[in-house]
Amino acid sequence: MKKVLVSVACVILAIATAIFIIVSIERVSAGNVGVVYSAKGVKEETISQGWHLMGPFEHVKQFPISQQQIVFSDDPADYNKKEHPDWSIDAPANGGMVKINLTVNYNFIPDKVVDLYKRFNGMDGETLVESRIQNSIIAYVKEVTPQFTVMDIYSEKKSEVNQAITAYLNDHLNSEYGINISSALIIDVELDSELQTKIRAKEQAKQDAEIADLNRQTALAQAETDKVIAQSKADVEIIEASAEAEANRIIAASITPELIQMKEAEARMEHGWVTVQGANTVVTK
Questions:
Q1: Exposed, middle or buried: residue 193 (CB in 10 Å: 0-12, 13-18, 19+)?
Q2: For residues 16-32, b (16+ Cβ closer than 10 Å) or e, as one string?
Q3: pLDDT of 35-92, one tens digit each?
Q4: Whether pTM exceeds 0.90
Q5: Smallest Cα–Cα separation from 64: which of 42, 49, 80?
Q6: Which member of 154, 161, 185, 249 has the lowest number of beta carbons within 10 Å of its beta carbon?
């Protein structure tokens, strides 16, 4: 009987130990750090990714320190889904309103996560992003866009707009939420029908001006080419005329009375005298 009781006790102890281990193990996901807290307070040192054996009353809240992405879009494809709520940003710009689809790449700064946990009543990184940071990003983007015209944001200076938004978000979110913003990139910009009409007209006018300028340059180039061809032709004609005149001069200078007499004598020797009398021609040799 005693042996049976010992065996049962061992089994119970083993089960209790297993349960204790199971409930005491915490796993920190890859790319995250964990903030350890209990009824006694919060530990100042975070724990890294992986499995950790915790005290019986200790718990962990996780914060991503590897790069994460927040998407603000009305296109479900940007979330790799067939359906998704419209999370695009309606932002003011110089000249009208624009609907912006935006991606923001960020990570929590490891040295600041313990303080964040304390300041925001025990929120973990995911909850903090969903409840606070996303709304702050939207508000700050709306503070940046009025510095640019609709055309700047729509096409002409989109890279400058991206840089300005990234810098502004970094300045504010770093101090407020311990977040580093690596980039904020505009995916797409949508305009209302009136603005679209104005922009199309402006782009058409720009294209027409570019075509007119190209035609003008082409005409100037053709005129220059025609001028060169005409000048070349005139030069050739002058050279040919000069050559012909020189040849005639040489020929005229070579005709002397003696040459004429010689040619006349040669003709007489070959053909004799030619006498024309009325309708009759008489050749005398």
A1: exposed
A2: eeeeeeeeeebebeeeb
A3: 999 888 899 999 988 888 877 788 899 999 999 999 999 999 999 999 999 999 999 9
A4: no
A5: 49
A6: 249
